[in-house]
Design goal:
The protein has 349 residues and is of the alpha+beta class. It has helices at 37-46, 193-201, 272-276, 291-307, 321-326, 337-348, and strands at residues 4-10, 15-17, 54-57, 62-67, 71-84, 87-89, 93-97, 102-118, 121-122, 152-156, 166-169, 180-184, 204-206, 214-218, 233-234, 239-241, 249-251, 258-259, 263-267, 283-284, 286-288, 310-313. The protein has two domains: 4-171 and 310-322, no CATH class; 180-289, Cyclophilin (Beta Barrel), CATH 2.40.100. Mean pLDDT is 91; it is low at 338-349.
Length: 349
Amino acid sequence: MSAALRVLSAGPGVTVQDAGRQSYMRFGVTPAGPMDFGAFAAALQAAGEPQGAAVEVSLGGLELAAEHGEIGIAVAGGAFDVRLDGSLLPPSCALTLAPGARLSLRAGPSGAWAYVAPCGRFDLPLVLGSLATHTRARLGGFFGRGLEAGDRLALLGARAGPSAPMAIDAPWLAPPPGKIRVLLGPQADFFAPETIAAFLAAPWRLSPRSDRMAYRLEGPPLAHLSGHDIVSDGLTFGAIQVPGDGAPLVLMADRQPTGGYPKIAHVIGADLGALAQKRAGEVVRFAEASWEEAVTARRWRAELIGRGASLTPLSRREFSSEFLLSQNLISGAVSAQAPAQAAGQNDCD
């Protein structure tokens, strides 16, 4: 039997994702894919599977065990509580999961999504050339649904990872400071200049009604100049629609292919991951970006990701005391008293 990851527990919204189901939007099929592509790419690169798939973990958490062999694992994303058999590890790390060992991810101090990438490929059927899960359409992943306790994720070409846990070095994982940058439009003319100014000035709070389809923002209602309907057009990841109630919706990975509400702005590609990692209740602020700034930021981020993630030994500050105490750091002990006693006996002879 092939090596596999056994799901011991999984919260809501834990799914298998690859880079997304491309070239089918014109047929009404949403790409799905990761909420935070940068973290997803870091995990896959660290696992040695840059074109592979990973388990996307929500704040509900995940616990896994290995079956029928050692399996290398890479974890990257928000600041989750990551533990191997109860011992705390850095939120972005690579390790080997031995049979019987348990890897758990739970919500930590910040971040909304984390990615668990195996050293190997999931033995799951492709749907329209992709493993990306879209639960509303019941497409892809683990038979179109989120993972549940008892699920078995069989792997092809499974192999072990590092002999000891290592840190993942991926510079693009650091969130950009400050505001989320946006490009105005393409229906910015549906809003008065003072409404656009209010959109950029307001502190927006992420609603608990947010999910992989859209992040709903709570704040001052945005008024339309003349109606809130347009001829439906295509939607992209990061499009900010303003429906009739004036509460902006930022469309995310599971967005619908088309929509008929005017879009006041779009989040630039380089900042999508930072927005995706926001939790319900957190405050989001926006800043207008130029096309040149957006292109430069995206190119810079793509270049960083293109250089790849690397693994480095855990530094002293990255080891928790409980992790150190759980390890066998010495091979034996020697008494300092015995040689002295022996020396004393020789002196008495």
